[in-house]
Amino acid sequence: MSHLSSAPDDAATTSSPELKDNTVVPAALSPHFSSGSTHKQAAAMEPSPTAMRCRVGLAVTGISLGVLVLLVFLAVADFRNYHIACWGLASGIFAVFTLIVHIQHLKGNHDDWLNRLKLPIILGFFVQLGTIPAFITYIVLAIVQNQSVMPLNGPHHGYYVTAVWVFMTWKWSFALFWYSKSYRRFYITKYVSIP
Questions:
Q1: pLDDT tens-digit map of 81-99
Q2: How far is CA 88 from CA 129, 165, 169, in A?
Q3: What is the spatial distance between Cα 177 and Cα 117, in angstroms, rounded to a whole number?
Q4: 3-class SS at 18?
Q5: CA-CA distance, 95 to 60, in Å (whole number)?
Q6: Nearest CA-CA partner of 183 in 115, 135, 136, 92
Q7: Contact (CB, 8 A) for 31 and 22
Q8: Segments of the chain assigned E as strands
Q9: ∠175-177-180 over CA atoms, to 5°?
Q10: Both ends of the chain: CA-CA distance in Å?
Q11: Residues 101, 137: contact at Cβ < 8 Å?
């Protein structure tokens, strides 16, 4: 056992991947290769510019659709439904939060943003958990009340469409959680030196 515990000290003092007793260290354990390996692993987690443009574009589309649903289901009398309007607004709000996370990642101020990513992670996690019972509730209400998809207006109509916007809110809150967590993991592996 003493031979195994002294091997890292010998490997640190030698400049080649061979130890003093002529045992060969695999390339993955070589100190020269391990620092490059960490860098390559962190670089692999960095999204490409095309992926970032797609993420920003999808978030802007989510914001636009959320605001559009809010306006249509509040302003147009034939489609007035407060359930759909509120869930469309919630979906748009979480799309805004997701867009903010993407923009902060593109700006590159990783030192300040590393600690601030905890709040979007927690917020996205709990909201996506809360939307699951809401989705199930709207589906069950629509089935129990024998609703059809149309008409949408009225206090007890449009539960299927409301369930769609609850799902969209779940999607954006999950995206907020997922991207915040992945960006935070990327910042920790690339910019924080672990002793």
A1: 888 999 999 999 999 999 9
A2: 18, 6, 8
A3: 9
A4: strand
A5: 7
A6: 115
A7: no
A8: none
A9: 100
A10: 25
A11: no
Closest CA to 166 of 129, 131, 130, 137: 131
pLDDT in 10s for each residue of the chain, 195 residues: 444 444 444 444 444 444 444 444 444 443 444 444 444 444 436 778 888 899 999 999 999 999 999 999 888 888 888 889 999 999 999 999 999 999 988 887 777 777 888 899 999 999 999 999 999 999 999 899 888 777 666 667 788 989 999 999 999 999 999 999 988 888 887 766 555
| Number of residues written out for the chain | 195
In this structure, what token pair is assigned to residue 80? 């007035």
User: Is the Cβ–Cβ distance between 165 and 69 less than 8 Å?
Assistant: yes
Cis previous bond, 8, omega within 30: no
Q: What is the dihedral of CA 142, 146, 149, 152, to 10 degrees?
A: -80
Structural tokens at position 113:
């943003």
25 three-state secondary structure: coil
Whether pTM exceeds 0.90: no
Cα(53)–Cα(59) distance, integer angstroms: 10
